[in-house]
């Protein structure tokens, strides 16, 4: 081998080594300077009650419902539902109706092995209002994300809350593409009327206590204030169904379905599946809606539980069991410390006698609990 060829190969080797070193150093600095997102798709968060510094009772309970409606649109975020919060409060020897302060939200997270909780504050600023959303690591107490928006007057508060919620989703690690796709304006996902939202939140309070009859007048009043409040019609349909007023349930469901384009993608799935199941009886469309819901929001309980119940009602016990077990595995991933109890609740028993009915009582109960504090739970027949 000639000296010139040997020197050439040595030069190439040196260049390649330098390039590799540059790539290694570059990668090191990139990952060192690019912080990991505060949350991942495996994390679950608790919503604390809003702190109302305005003295105006119209904001009590109202803003938390609006925030939940906005956040549930996200396939990235997993919200510990109000029903599960109430169950945890009982285990803590507290009243299930107790306000979820920051301190209590943190304790719930620590008990359930959840990563973070989200709190909100509304404060007056002259004639304006400032909305602050603050996400906190429940284990360390460190702030992991914050977002603010200012409302120029009371009538703009709901819109400002939507703006802050969208900012927070990005700060928590959700991709811009996901936010752009699943971010219906908050006044469409809920209502632009604070009064309608107040009655709606009062209805939710009754529903969470299992007082379905008492919840109906509040949801009805919300629809009277805002005739385009699709979410309230959907909630009213559930309450009518739960109290076996099936004709009224179908009427409210039909109205919600007519308004479905005014809500976010998540709520649209709920409204559509109820319409096909209880109003038109189109089983194929009902099942198709649940399957699409499951693919779009893979970490959500409702489609799995609803499919488990429906398949069991149809005598398709193996498919019902498959859905229930899939939901049990999902619960193990997002809330491991309560997964054992949730598995018992979600389990569907395959009967020994092929003609005997399946044990779906616990699956029905589980199916009524949704991912977010939405009132639109699955109806209990």
Keyword list:
globular, 17 helices, Serine Threonine Protein Phosphatase 5, Tetratricopeptide repeat, Rossmann fold, 5-stranded mixed β-sheet, 2 domains, disordered C terminus, about 375 residues, 5 strands, alpha/beta, about 55% helix
Characterise the protein shown here:
This protein is an alpha/beta fold and 381 residues long. It has 2 domains: 45-189, Rossmann fold (3-Layer(aba) Sandwich), CATH 3.40.50.10070; 194-367, Tetratricopeptide repeat domain (Serine Threonine Protein Phosphatase 5, Tetratricopeptide repeat, Alpha Horseshoe), CATH 1.25.40.10. Helices cover 57% and strands 9% of the residues. The protein is built from 17 helices and 5 strands. It has helices spanning 3-33, 62-71, 82-91, 102-112, 157-171, 176-181, 186-189, 194-208, 212-225, 230-242, 246-258, 265-280, 283-296, 301-313, 317-334, 339-346, 361-367, and strands at 45-47, 51-52, 116-125, 128-137, 143-151. Strands 1, 2, 3, 4 and 5 form a 5-stranded mixed sheet that branches. A hairpin with a 2-residue loop joins strand 3 and strand 4 (128-137). The N and C termini lie far apart (88 Å). The relative contact order is 0.10.
The appropriate CATH architecture of the largest domain is Alpha Horseshoe
CATH topology of the largest domain: Serine Threonine Protein Phosphatase 5, Tetratricopeptide repeat
Distance between the termini: 88 Å
Number-wise, the strands total 5
CATH level 1 name of the largest domain: Mainly Alpha
């Amino acid at each position: 081998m000639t000296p010139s060829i040997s020197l050439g190969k040595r030069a190439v080797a040196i260049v390649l080594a330098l390039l590799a070193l540059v790539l290694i150093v570059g990668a090191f600095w990139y990952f060192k300077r690019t912080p990991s997102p505060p949350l991942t798709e495996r994390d679950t968060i608790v919503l604390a009650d809003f702190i109302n510094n305005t003295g105006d009772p119209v904001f009590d309970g109202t803003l938390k419902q609006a925030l939940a409606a906005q956040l549930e649109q996200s396939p990235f975020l997993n919200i510990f539902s109000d029903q599960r919060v109430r169950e945890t409060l009982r285990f803590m020897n507290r009243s299930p109706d107790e306000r979820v302060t920051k301190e209590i939200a943190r304790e719930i997270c620590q008990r359930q092995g959840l990563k973070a909780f989200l709190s909100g504050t509304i404060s007056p600023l002259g004639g304006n209002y400032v909305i602050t959303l603050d996400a906190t690591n429940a284990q360390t107490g460190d702030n992991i994300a914050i977002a603010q928006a200012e409302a120029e007057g009371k009538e703009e508060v709901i819109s400002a809350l939507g703006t802050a919620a969208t900012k927070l989703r990005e700060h928590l690690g959700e991709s811009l593409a996901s936010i752009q796709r699943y971010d219906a304006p908050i006044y469409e996902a809920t209502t632009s009327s604070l009064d309608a939202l107040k009655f709606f939140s009062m209805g939710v309070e009754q529903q969470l206590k299992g007082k379905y009859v008492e919840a109906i007048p509040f949801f009805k009043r919300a629809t009277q204030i805002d005739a385009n409040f699709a979410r309230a019609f959907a909630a009213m349909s559930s309450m009518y169904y739960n109290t076996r007023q099936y004709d009224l349930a179908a009427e409210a469901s039909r109205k919600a379905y007519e308004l479905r384009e005014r809500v976010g993608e998540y709520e649209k799935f709920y409204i559509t599946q109820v319409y096909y199941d209880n109003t038109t009886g189109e089983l194929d469309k009902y099942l198709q809606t649940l399957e699409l819901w499951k693919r779009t929001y893979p970490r959500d309980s409702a489609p799995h539980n609803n499919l488990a119940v429906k398949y069991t009602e149809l005598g398709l016990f193996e498919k019902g069991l498959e859905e229930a077990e899939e939901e049990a595995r999902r619960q193990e991933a997002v809330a491991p410390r309560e997964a054992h109890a949730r598995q018992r609740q979600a389990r569907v028993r395959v009967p020994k006698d092929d003609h005997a009915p399946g044990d779906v009582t616990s699956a029905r109960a589980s199916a009524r609990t949704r991912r977010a504090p939405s009132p639109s739970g699955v109806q209990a027949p």
